[in-house]
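Sequence in, structure out. Go.
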Amino acid sequence: MRVVIALGGNALLRRGEPMDVEIQVCNARRAATAVAAVAAEHDVVITHGNGPQVGLLALQAEAYTEGPILPLDLLGAESEGLIGYLLDRELVGLLPHRRIATVLTQTLVSTEDPALDAPSKPIGPVYPPERGAQLAAERGWVMRPDGDGLRRVVPSPAPAGIVELPTLRLLLEHQVLVICAGGGGVPVARRPDGRLQGVEAVVDKDAASALLARELDADALLLLTDVDAVYRGWPGRGDPVREISADHLEALPLAAGSMGPKAAAACAFARSGGAAAIGALDDALAVLEGRAGTRISRI
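Output:
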């Protein structure tokens, strides 16, 4: 079975944790262990979030005052390499006889996408309200409430294609475990002359993962996060949903900045005929086998 596993931002940095290297290494080991259990029996493609890392890179880049601020597409590429390296390194140790490759991935978007004028994707840490307001004034950032604080949001255009798709297919044909499309892939647009240009945005990782799964003819898409299932009545938890149709899942009131995009991605893939599921990172194999998490059906 070919399985696309989309790791949430908790793969390297869980909510409330400091952006410490050792913490990210430990979390990468935990994520790799969960993935390795699936990869022992199936062909696997891994995608991952990068919100905390790209936000930190943006802050670090602004400390350099001798030149212009680095655009988001370059920061996205840096974070793809950083996270891909940590996951790759751990997987090599866990799966010594498996070929593994991390592919820097570009995702095509349209410059006409209205989302470019409506920032919505959270990146970076959650700031205390006073500090968040200060950063908005100083840097021109758009900030939105997140828990008790404020978090930066940036445009999130829809993914229209994966530039490296032929390369990814070639690797999978040779049974290579692939890490790709980190953070949704680096957003690029095609110019009239056919060349690519970076776009100041972040592509939603879950939407890109669903597109990638369809284009790679995957059998299953796992969207793994820090909760064990979709819940009715969130954030008051309520009852876990173990199986649900795409239509009924879309009707649930889910948070736009967290479970909402995962549900939308799962519905899109389920409607294409694949098996989609949402669940906890540590339960990866059980989620795939239907023993944990939430399974989404076409009807």
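Check: Residues 2-108+158-187+195-297 form a domain with the Carbamate kinase fold (CATH 3.40.1160.10). The radius of gyration is 18 Å.
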